[in-house]
Amino acid sequence: MGELLGVAVLGAGHMGADHVRRLDRTVGGARVVAVADPDPARAEAAVAGVAGAKALTEAEAALDAPGVEAVLIASPGEAHEAALLAAFARGLPVLCEKPMVPGSAGALRVVEAEARLGRRLAQIGFMRRHDTAYARLKSVLDGGSLGRVLMLHCVHRNVSSPPGFTSAMLIESSVAHEIDAARWLLGQEPAAVSVLRPRPSPGAPEGLLDPQFVVLETDGGALVDVEIFVNCGSGYEVRCEAVCEKGSARLGQAPGLAVTAAGTVREEVPQDYLVRFADAYDREVRAWVDATRRGRVTGASAWDGYVAAATAEAGVRALQTGTRSTVHLAPRPALYHPA
Amino acid sequence: MGELLGVAVLGAGHMGADHVRRLDRTVGGARVVAVADPDPARAEAAVAGVAGAKALTEAEAALDAPGVEAVLIASPGEAHEAALLAAFARGLPVLCEKPMVPGSAGALRVVEAEARLGRRLAQIGFMRRHDTAYARLKSVLDGGSLGRVLMLHCVHRNVSSPPGFTSAMLIESSVAHEIDAARWLLGQEPAAVSVLRPRPSPGAPEGLLDPQFVVLETDGGALVDVEIFVNCGSGYEVRCEAVCEKGSARLGQAPGLAVTAAGTVREEVPQDYLVRFADAYDREVRAWVDATRRGRVTGASAWDGYVAAATAEAGVRALQTGTRSTVHLAPRPALYHPA
Amino acid sequence: MGELLGVAVLGAGHMGADHVRRLDRTVGGARVVAVADPDPARAEAAVAGVAGAKALTEAEAALDAPGVEAVLIASPGEAHEAALLAAFARGLPVLCEKPMVPGSAGALRVVEAEARLGRRLAQIGFMRRHDTAYARLKSVLDGGSLGRVLMLHCVHRNVSSPPGFTSAMLIESSVAHEIDAARWLLGQEPAAVSVLRPRPSPGAPEGLLDPQFVVLETDGGALVDVEIFVNCGSGYEVRCEAVCEKGSARLGQAPGLAVTAAGTVREEVPQDYLVRFADAYDREVRAWVDATRRGRVTGASAWDGYVAAATAEAGVRALQTGTRSTVHLAPRPALYHPA
Amino acid sequence: MGELLGVAVLGAGHMGADHVRRLDRTVGGARVVAVADPDPARAEAAVAGVAGAKALTEAEAALDAPGVEAVLIASPGEAHEAALLAAFARGLPVLCEKPMVPGSAGALRVVEAEARLGRRLAQIGFMRRHDTAYARLKSVLDGGSLGRVLMLHCVHRNVSSPPGFTSAMLIESSVAHEIDAARWLLGQEPAAVSVLRPRPSPGAPEGLLDPQFVVLETDGGALVDVEIFVNCGSGYEVRCEAVCEKGSARLGQAPGLAVTAAGTVREEVPQDYLVRFADAYDREVRAWVDATRRGRVTGASAWDGYVAAATAEAGVRALQTGTRSTVHLAPRPALYHPA
Fold first, then answer.
1. For a designed S-S bond to A55, which of A43, B36, B270, D178 qualifies (C-beta 3.0 to 4.6 A apart)?
2. Chains meeting A at 3+ CB pairs closer than 8 A?
């Protein structure tokens, strides 16, 4: 390959700064050329020590900076649609953090814009597809020895939720990961969603419906149930068990170091998704850099981003009405048909 | 104590014969005095080698046999109501296999008969209450360090179902165990049931809705979800995770022997509840014999048997209608109020 | 069978009282007829509530009590030789707690006495042979799919040692279990022992060499290494891994209940062998009662008791001299040849 | 930082080619400038697709290639001493694969040369120090809550050994990892080694003494036992349990995906150290590149390489003589004293 891929990073918050560090030091093959953030201090802080990287306040200016060959979008979700369309207009490959676009209407506009373009430029940051354990699970399921999947039991727990987290965001922001993972593992589309609400935990902020229990039905007749609990207090836990016709496979049992003392065996639970999925983020960005340098687009597509948005929307409706909610999807453009 | 408790066993099928063996050889403090089964050959086979035990064809004759001080009912469910009432009429302590009585109407009659009697004679055979791991789980939950229970995730799998097993029996016969275990662990009563139906497994007999996914709501605001899969093909698995305000506790990870060979670590999964719960059955019968010899009645009550029946009935309604079904319970007689 | 087996229990200490309770209430088929202990108060306490059981101070008086058909020896080790010979003289079947006899010379006298008798009467209480996990391990090894055993890695830890426990007793009393288990699992005899001494733990009493690391070589070329640590402070742990030609098998990973809270997954470690091996003791005594009522003798033999004593003796020599010590065994009498 | 570190890679075999790929694509901050291998075809193959990298046959020519700022030595062990001295002569920082130098005499010459230089240039490739689980274990041990380490139980198994692998190489090449890991975890130096030899496995090549059981004694009174079994047939397994004064900690229980089917729960065992330690290699090289760009030398030192060689030498002596062999170490130069 040789030349390093010149990348503009949009957004210099927690996630954007982490990606700048990753592109500069952890992942080979790329260099950060420009970082844009409306807050100039944050942009400057992100490029400190990164040779040849420019700090800017305007996303479009960053896309137009000399040497930019690709874009990594890590700005807040509301800025994603404009940034994606600007990248499409310039023919720049994009890695866009999830959610691709909040709300299915905007997500559909992105899908239609890319479909008009006639070629894929966008990869969406569903990093679980790059996690070793998820990849193993998919490979076992695809291998066929267990037969078809009948149910997926999922657990998704955070120690605590950030300020301003709403009951709808448990679905839009958190369960979105399970929605994408389920589609990817099963090769099926969501058909309906129900949301059950146990008594809220006193550990959650006043008024937040936490935990929730989400049940997804797919067009292939599979059930996906998800415990989402964003103030569980005890650790970050992601588990997934696929119950199949001939057996089951599960990931997420705490591995690692077992310490025996004072009458118990203890194993650590990670406190944070950046710990649990650190390697998945590295692999995701590495895979994107490698593919982009070869002129390819792989990974989750804008269509995947759209379906996640539309399904989460149906989930929020189910949460609010207390009834089962059907998922309505636009027709899938030919660009996104499986090869 | 001294004298051995004289027991009449009703029913000499698989379970009855097993209990005869248990009372004769495994559990101390009791002796089998009479075994009744409509099939004389089965009754004879069960008492073969059991000194002093008589084989009979009539349940009432067994209750009236000389030396009978207590009754163990292991006949088919339809015979339970008459047997329980006959035991009550004679003032005999009873251990009755589950289901106490099929159908909530008959179960309520038993409750009312015992309430009229004014003292407890019946213990119902929910043997999970006697399993070491369940007992540990209850003790951890009661200890209070994890706060209140918000959700119970349960898995209940059998290798294959016996001939004639119907879609309703997945709830009435199998999920009945989780219904009782949930009530016992939570100290709450069921309020509503929903049943979701993934695509049936091709491993299940034609027409059987297997697996099912049952969601129970309690009057205390907890959710209990149960995967019931009676033709899973791979083993007998019972798991239960309690998700609480401050942490979680789960039982049922396969323990035992780990064999590493040919690139895998393998652990055995038991094939049968008689293997998984062998010790629980022994403990249950031992506890019953011990308590009975001391003139006490402990363990699950006729009220517990009735609530399990009424909840299962609501579950079957939910399965048939595809909607959430409310659980209606008769008022609880004073006899069954917690001390 | 019918009639209950009349048993005399010698010794009413911790273990003896536990066996009285077991024979009376937990295990079917037997009744305690007499209990002998030099301390009359202990003997009385042990028979309290056991109908028909007599408290005595003399072992021989207990053997001669009316109704005695079998003997369970749970007195201190020094009293075992006389008790065994007295039982042999009366033709009474015996279950003798380990150590059969402390010291190989006395153990050999017991072997010779039983050999002269020409029939087996004694079973030695190596209860691990009755533990479910050990039995599974033996069955996997005997099955042959893993090939022959090359090494056994054993761990044996106690929370703390009783008063008066000496450095030699780590081998004689504790490692004795691994010596017997290894012989039973491998079907090979010990050939040599070495004892390595890491720095003693400050948690052990002054002067006690604890932990020790014992390496046993068998006449079949297998190595057995044993960590013995009787003041480990954290729990009672027994693990055993068999490394074979084609794979390995291990037991002893803590199963049971996993509690997740405050950033860790915790599983309990039992604090005591009476907890860990409770079921094994029950099974052992039940198997002895069953076999005895059928006129049979099964389980570990006096020869097994003798070899354990002779090997432990070599181990203590190795501990004291710091060198490898050869195990010398007397010729095996025909009575003990495998069928 | 900015400019990419120019690296010369010596050796283009399996490991060398893997490092070229790692520096080019997986790890940021470096670029491969030259690759030297006596076999021109191998050198050419390694640089194919690596822009700006030159293929050479002479190690010294590679060190002198324009743009070379650091050296990664992955040639066969016999070439290491000359390569290290050549790098020292040029003042180039080095990452040298293990063994640093085969044999303690040559290793000591490297130590003395670097000591004369008066500053550290060499880091030795003991990659376990960069493994997440080992790092966690060290952090728990250093934290002090478990007290001091009394014993380390280690297991090191390979599926099969490469052609030409000798009985001595089980210690020199394989146990060398445990020797370094034990020194690093304990902060103590080896004092003596014993090697026990169970019956060789029929799965090992004729004449190879495999498995072996190595016991290391440290100058701090700790025992380190290592099962090394390089033809175990079933998988690549590395386990380590530290037994401490107040508890124990162990790593290496197979985590990952659990598949339940046909009566067993199965978890995969990796087949290869490149799978098990893939992340550790990445982290090691990344840490080296980062430190070197900052003008620092961290990680295992030439002294660590020397002690591993001297201890392995004592181990081979113990294997050959069948007796305990003392480890003799030269005085440690001030350059290697802990800060």
1. A43
2. B, C, D
Res. A1 pLDDT band, cuts 50 70 90: very low
Tokens representing B109 are 């009659």
pLDDT at A311 over 50: yes
Which of D146, D239, D259, D284 should be substituted to probe chain A, the one whose Cβ sees the most A Cβ atoms within 10 Å? D259
Long-range contacts of D61-65 (CB under 8 A, 24+ apart): D61/D34, D61/D36, D62/D8, D62/D9, D62/D10, D62/D34, D62/D35, D62/D36, D63/D8, D63/D87, D63/D90, D63/D92, D64/D90, D65/D8, D65/D33, D65/D34
Say if residues D49 and D17 touch (Cβ distance below 8 Å). Answer: no
Closest CA to D257 of C265, A249, A145, A184: A249
Strands B264-268 and B258-261: antiparallel
Q: ω into residue B99 within 30 of 0, thus cis?
A: yes
Q: What is the CATH number of domain D136-272+306-336?
A: 3.30.360.10
What is d(CA A100, CA A306) in angstroms, rounded to the nearest whole number?
7
- Widest distance between CA atoms in chain C: 64
Contact between D33 and D7 (Cβ < 8 Å): yes
> The tokens of C28 are what?
């079917």
Nearest C-alpha neighbor of C226 from the set C288, C177, C265, C291: C177
What are the domain boundaries of chain A? Answer: 5-128+279-306, 146-269+325-336
What superfamily would CATH give domain A146-269+325-336? Dihydrodipicolinate Reductase; domain 2 (3.30.360.10)
Residues in A closer than 8 angstroms to D259, CB to CB, are 140, 146, 247-249
Q: Which two tokens stand for residue D246?
A: 């107040």
Please state the ipTM of this predicted complex.
0.87
* Strand boundaries in chain A, DSSP class E: 5-10, 30-36, 54-56, 70-73, 94-97, 122-125, 149-157, 190-196, 212-218, 223-229, 237-244, 247-251, 258-261, 264-268, 325-326
Q: Which residue of D has its CA nearest to C158?
A: D247
Contacts of C266 in chain D (CB under 8 A): none
Alpha-carbon gap, residue A179 to A169, rounded angstroms: 14
CATH number for D5-128+279-302 (one of 3.90.79.10, 3.40.50.720, 3.10.340.11, 3.40.1260.10): it is 3.40.50.720
Which chain B residue is nearest to residue A203, measuring alpha carbons? B245
Does the pLDDT value for residue A269 go beyond 80?
no
| Beta strands B325-326 and A325-326, pairing class | unpaired
Domain C140-271+307-336, what fold?
A: Dihydrodipicolinate Reductase; domain 2 (3.30.360)
Nearest to A5 by CA among A91, A67, A95, A72: A67
CA pair distance D146, D247, nearest whole angstrom? 5
In terms of CA atoms, which chain A residue is nearest residue B253? A253
Residue tagged 């749970």 (tokens): C74
CA distance B229 to A150: 10
DSSP-derived pairing of the beta strands D237-244 and D190-196: unpaired
Contact D290/A at CB under 8 A: yes
Confidence check: pLDDT of C2 > 50: no
Class of domain B133-272+306-336: alpha beta
| CB within 8 Å of chain D, chain B residues 233-272 | 233-235, 237, 254, 260-269, 271
Q: Which CATH class is domain B5-128+279-301?
A: alpha beta
| Contact residues on chain D for C155, CB-CB shorter than 8 A | 153
Report whether pLDDT(B256) > 60: no
Interface test with D, best of A259, A276, A283 (most D CBs within 10 A): A259
pTM of the model: 0.85
Q: What is the pLDDT of residues C268-326, one digit of tens each?
A: 667 677 677 778 888 899 889 988 988 899 889 999 999 999 999 999 999 999 999 99
Enclosing H/E stretch for D192? strand D190-196
